[in-house]
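Lab notes, practical 5.
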Amino acid sequence: MLRLLLDTHAFLWWIMGDPQSSTRVRQAIAVPEDEVYVSAASAWKIAIKASLGRPRVPDDLDGCVAREMRRSRFRSLAIDVRQALGVADPPPLRRDPFDRLLVPQVLREDLTLVSADPWVARYSVSVLW
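Output from the prediction step:
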């Protein structure tokens, strides 16, 4: 059983049906026994970007995300104080505070990060792509 945390782009590509997701990722997400999480940090980032007109997201963002979370059996990963303080631990190799929060979430919750971004290779985290 895998325990996965979807990076923001991985979640968006999944809900939008974007073919940029790797076959490995699509197969892992489809395994019923695997636990797939979406961080509150990703939802926050999506909402901010949507309010600025990017990325292209469905008009009914709340409804779309809620439906997809249920349909795909994704779990919500809240941000707790311990995880937030963990942003100080890894070196600031990434300026985006939302992306930087995913690192301590992965490390402290024993998850594998699902991401195509090369920046994650600079941290000591398990990555699936």
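Observations recorded by the TA: The chain has one domain: 3-128. The chain is about 45% helix and 15% strand.
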